Amino acid sequence: MRFFVLAAALFAAVAVDAQSDGAQQNRIGRSGTFAVTNARIVPVSGPVIENGTIVISAGKITAVGEGISVPSGAERIDGKGLSVYPGMIDAGTALGLAEVTQGANATMDMTETGTMNANAKAITAVNPHTSHVNVTRVNGITTVMSAPRGGLISGQGTVINLNGATQGDMSVVPEFGLVINFPRIATFGGFGGGGFGGGQAIDFNEAIRRRDNQIDELKKIFRDAQNYARAREAYAKDNSLPYTAVDLRMDAMTPYIRGERPVMLTVERERDIRAAVNFVKEMSLKGIIVGGQEAHLVASELKANDVAVIYTNIYSLPVRPDDPYDFLFGAPGELQRAGVRFAISTGDTGAEVRDLPYHAGLAGAYGLSREEALKSVTLYPAQILGVADKMGSLEVGKMANVVVTDGDLLDPRTNIKHMFINGRLIPLTSRHTDLFDSFKDRK
Amino acid sequence: MRRSFVLFVAIAMLATVPLVVPAQSSETLIRNATVLTASRGTLENTDILIRDGKISRIGRNLSAGSGARVIDATGKFVTPGILDAHSHLMLNAINEGSLSVTSMTRIRDVLNPTDIGVYRALAGGVTGALLLHGSANAIGGQSSSVKFKYGKPVEDFVIAGAPEGIKFAMGENPKRSSQTFTGGQTPRYPRTRMGTLEVMRDAFERARDYRQAWADYRSKKTRVPPRRDIELEPVVEILEGRRIVHAHGYRSDEHLNLLHMAEEFGFKIGTLQHGLEAYKFAPEIAKHGAGVSIFVDSWSYKLEAYDSIPYNAYILWKNGVNVSINSDSNERIRRLNLDAAKVMKYGGVPEQDALKMITLNPAIQMGIGNRTGSIDQGKDADIVIWSEHPFSPYAHAEITMIDGEVYFDRAQDRSRQAELRREREELEKLEVNRAPGSGGTPPRIPAERVEDDLGEHHGEIDGGHR
Amino acid sequence: MKLKLFLFAFAATGLFAGGSVHAQSYAITNARIVTVSGPTIERGTVVVRNGLIHAVGANVTAPSDAQVFDGTGLTVYPGFIDSLTAVGIQPPARPAGGPGGGGGGGAAAAAAAATAQAGQSNSNYPVGLRPELAAFEDIRSNEASIEANRNAGITTVLSVGRTGIFNGQSALINLAGDSAGAMVVRNPVALHISFATIPGQYPGSLLGTFSALRQMFLDARRLDEVQKIYAADPRGIRRPDDDPSLQALIPALQRQMPVVFTANRDIEIIRALDLAKEFNLRVMIAGGQEAWKVADRLKSADATVLLSMNHPRRTTAAAPDADPEPLELLRSRAEAPKNAVRLSEAGVKYAFQSGGAPNAADYLTNAGKAVEAGLSRDAAVKAMTLSAAEIFGVDNRMGSVEAGKIANLTVVRGDPFARERVITHVFVDGQVFEPKPPATPASPGGPARPGATPGAAPGIPGATPGTPPALAAVGGNFSITIDIPGQPLTGTFALTQQGASLTGSMQTQLGTAPIRDGRVTAEGFSFTATVEFGGASIDINVRGTVTGNQITGTIDSPQGTVPFTGTRNP
């Protein structure tokens, strides 16, 4: 018991530590008017501008192109030999909800207890000062979708910029989508985390039964939520009707049952993806597949039902020994050729989100064109996350999430030279550069 | 030669997944490549002549005898085969987790040459690895240095004459931090970093006594031969500098204490494995002469890994330490080329030195740097031909060869897929492969996602490997 | 005691002490006689007297004292040998932990049982590393499966338990006799090793298994050496500590006793051969499913294969949601029946074993698959007779139809490898058994109740059906506890009995499996099931009895034999 208290104190100390120097580390940068001149500009949404200028002011891209005149008072950045890209977006993370995933439970806020947590909102738990923020963004990733995991309905993901002293500062879409850890026949869960089976060996037929029962359970939750919303709405219009008390979980479902916001179904294998698509169709939802390991085998259904895929399996091994070695590297290319809307994501809890460009690069090595590979981590995730009007490409009027590099954005050798998030020039420091500075010259 | 060829073809036809039938001649000429030698810079428009499994000549306009396989590598890049100095591929067991000293165990005993992970690693340009025991024990089992001769019998994988090695482990894993105990269970000693060092010290002391007992017997001071103790024999070899210690650890203090203990007992540590905080005491490592084998940038996955930084390689390199970048993963091993590329960014390690970290440096750490790890005349022809610069994210390996024989060929891999589908159709028609008409057992529950496949040994890892 | 057994083990062979031999003489006339050691006699006579083959030949006449069987249309073979099985072994009852152990008591009870067992020995090694264990000690002449095997034409088996790393030492026994001592032909025959582990202690992994074996062989070698030094001049030397486990390894190190490794995959066989080479052991491979892949190694190691005829086949049900089976698995099933002919071509010595097939009758039928795959019929018969006798060093007394040899004979109507064959007579040590054909729907009357029926009408099987015995009543739902040491499993049997057939399912933490080949006899029941364990499908054979509401029995698996107990649910 005493040990437990001591251990808890130790873990708390870690969290506090991360917070205190986090405030210092996650410098929020400075705003102003900036112009990157003479640079190669890759707008993603249009052709490459070999020698152009981009102007950033008051958080927005105010000009981009050749022969742009730099406004007076603007801070000039010489972009000679450099390239300008939109900031990358990882649409499938838990960044900010998990600091140290093993042995430090006090830093873990990914998984609420219970199966149905529609009201759990990631935006209320992402830690603005986690070191994952600064470590990730200095690699050119400016925005992530961060979501809870586990259970059946895990909660609501949020789209955040990787900058800000408060959750509000970071928020792009506070409540973006509802994560459903879609029932599947499997031994353990994917992106959503293992909600059932617990890794224990269970009988196959039993696994099918459990999956089907859970899908029924899920449908019932959605129907209950429809009934709840109907009753609440009716009462609001007519007080003589029976009153239905607020149920936070049900209440949180309303925008999702109406298809106003998307549900994100974490699911990997072909048979389960089919079931997920049917679920979306039957319940008239706006659906997104997260994980999507075998989504390319279900491409026509996905396309027909306009279900997009956030693909998180570049760093996974094929599950069957007989699969071609590049079965998963090649999947995004297959999705693209089949006309399925998709984005590439790390699917990581936070620390390794910075590898996003290399996930896309590997897809580029195995069948996806380089242009598409770049889109798969910029414009495509912006579209799937419903923020393409704000980000994902370099266009006038968009939020200035801009990265200046000395090479191909997806190349591991490339250095990020400057970056802007929401128009603020971000210092390229992180927990890692701080430790580097502390020890690099030790004799 | 003839016999092994017949055997090879027989195995290829009967037993295994994609394989390339070797050339009829023992000569191969790679023409007009951009060669990243890993030792002497980059050579443009260069030919490599391979004869009898060795790199015979490197130069321009080389010619080969008739019957030689000629590969036109115009526009392609050639590197030495990648070596992974920390892998658990092709093992049927990883940890003997019962005791705190398991130096008697040998990875050689549990090699599984048909592990599909080997083929996938070849497809990532990896030609060999240091296969290590897990990290459940202060002193773990004896390692094995292999080349990935997929399709060959197991003994062909083992690199003849490679120095012997052994795993040590410190920190969370050997002290079993995450283990919970139920009633009646007693924790295994050690439970602290203090105890871990004492377990090692005790083994060294016992090994000294053991060596003395044999010396006494040999000098006829005693009449009865001592018991041969296969736990202590490898520890004696460590003390005598005949067995390389590969020491798993994360925190700088514990690794430094191990260096000190080794110095006290008069031997050198071969490599610090993982060494996520090695950058904090790089000068001491350089002085001791140990190598370090690291993850390029993994961090934060457990408390011990919270101070890991991707600049580790750079700081160690700047201090003159031999650094290798390892995978410790059946997944990550497939993309070590991109891991090496990262150190050019994090700190600015020059290209050739970055490449060395996955080729020549691990070879040196494994004690085989004199025969592989670089494209140099006389070395083993362990060679990868890449579609473009191996540090480009868009590169893939096209051909991977070991000792001059092709073990992965992307073009053949493509064409084999249809063949395998046909074979499956035929096999599934056989009575023995048809499902029983009624009844029968339920099929296996399908795997969902495999991020770090260590085969069927997840349970056994208890005590960890990473 | 054990030591004594050791010292006399090899001296004691070669004598047939005919304690329970029937003095009756028999003659099988007009039969086709496959002698195996010589040419087949198309029409001849075999005379059996005093438990031995008295005469055999085309021109031999039945002596006047002999009971004569007309063998017209029948073929006489040497008694078939199953060269590795657990038939005849009745594992000792463990101290009851039982199902009523209460919360958490199961593990404790199992631990107590293990301790109790360990306490019976002065070995310094844990249960599982006890090479001195003799299968002979567990042979019971009334063990339930003996009869079924004999009825299937099997007269002789090499038997050993299957638990632990050292499974112990096997015994070659004839499948009839009043006592184990009367049944035994040779004991001990070989030392048996499985690449198993001892969960929860050293060696707890395959890594440790090899190092533990290696250290024990080294220690045994040293004990032998030090004992000799001490015997020569004990003065000034501390006497060596004795240990029954190490003593048991010395004959193996001296190549007096062969060492049988259970190994099926090619890599397992290679590991066994490598270890055997390290200690210069006389090596045999049991199972050998992929032996053909390493035939050249087996040949150069002079290794013998006790080749399992229980060829793998798919047992998993078709399910559209399941992943397809791996190619490697599909291939291995296709290749297994070709094993024997390939070993023959490579010059590797082998004998057949039943491989734990659930029904004794499957042994011959499965051997027929090797014939279908190209093995000559003569070679197949030899692999179940003379080759096995040679391998076990008893070919001077059995394995062929020759005068002076033990009268073990199997008499068959029809193709012995075809399912339709009829085993008409089985002679074991000169004692004749006449199996009844299995019950058919046309002639209900329960299962065959074979037994010693000297004097029964010759020739036509089933001519004098006995009174059908009352069958056991075993239907119902049972809660059971499977007593796996340290890890008791609980589960249920749902058994539906219809006459002599049994259907239903068994459910444990490993999943639910339908039962196959379920049969009920007067004594009890048996069935087969396939369970998923450790990522592989394994066949288990369940045998048991029901008394009132109590159920007890054993489960045989490739990993070993474990007892179970349980009660009928209301």
What do these coordinates show?
- The complex is a heterotrimer of chains A (443), B (466) and C (570).
- Chain A is built from 12 helices and 16 strands.
- In chain A, 31% of the residues lie in helices and 21% in strands.
- Chain A has a domain at 88-391: TIM Barrel, CATH 3.20.20.
- Chain A has helices at residues 2-25, 131-137, 167-170, 204-237, 248-257, 270-282, 299-304, 331-337, 356-365, 370-375, 379-384, 431-439, and strands at 33-41, 49-57, 60-65, 75-78, 83-86, 88-93, 141-146, 153-161, 171-180, 263-267, 287-291, 308-311, 342-344, 402-405, 416-421, 424-425.
- In chain A, helix 4 (204-237) packs across helix 5 (248-257).
- In chain A, the strands form 2 sheets. In chain A, strands 1, 2, 3, 4, 5, 14, 15 and 16 form an 8-stranded mixed beta sheet that branches. In chain A, strands 6-7-8-9-10-11-12-13 form an 8-stranded mixed beta sheet.
- Chain B is of the alpha/beta class and 466 residues long.
- Chain B has 2 domains: 1-80 and 373-412, Urease, subunit C, domain 1 (Roll), CATH 2.30.40.10; 82-372, Alpha-Beta Barrel (TIM Barrel), CATH 3.20.20.140.
- Chain B is built from 13 helices and 17 strands.
- Chain B starts with a helix and ends in a 5-residue tail after the last helix.
- Mean pLDDT of chain B is 91; it is low at 1-23 and 455-463.
- Among the domains of chain C are: 19-79 and 399-467, Urease, subunit C, domain 1, CATH 2.30.40.10; 470-570, Quinohemoprotein amine dehydrogenase alpha subunit, domain 2 (Lipocalin, Beta Barrel).
- In chain C, helix 5 crosses helix 6.
- The relative contact order of chain C is 0.14.
- In chain C, strands 1, 2, 3, 4, 5, 16, 17 and 18 form an 8-stranded mixed beta sheet that branches. Chain C has an 8-stranded antiparallel barrel with strand order 19-20-21-23-24-25-26-27.
- Chain C is globular and about 70 Å long.
- Chain C is of the alpha+beta class and 570 residues long.
- Chain C is 23% helix and 29% strand.
- Chains A and B meet through helix 2, helix 4, helix 9 and helix 12 of A and helix 2, helix 8, helix 9 and helix 12 of B.
CATH superfamily of the largest domain in chain B: Metal-dependent hydrolases
What is the string of helix and strand elements of chain B? Answer: HEEEEEEHEEEHEHHEHEHEHEHHHEEEHH
CATH fold-level label of the domain at 19-79 and 399-467 in chain C: Urease, subunit C, domain 1
Helix/strand/pairing category of chain C: alpha+beta
The biggest chain-chain interface is: A-B, 70 and 65 residues
Instruction: Return Rg of chain B in Å.
Output: 24 Å
CATH topology of the largest domain in chain B: TIM Barrel
Termini separation of chain B: 40 Å
Give the helix proportion of chain B (percent range): 25-40%
* Rg of chain C (C-alpha, Å): 24 Å
End-to-end C-alpha gap of chain C: 48 Å
**The CATH homologous superfamily of the domain at 19-79 and 399-467 in chain C:** Urease, subunit C, domain 1
Residue share in β-strands of chain B: 15-25%
State the name of the first-level CATH class of the largest domain in chain B: Alpha Beta
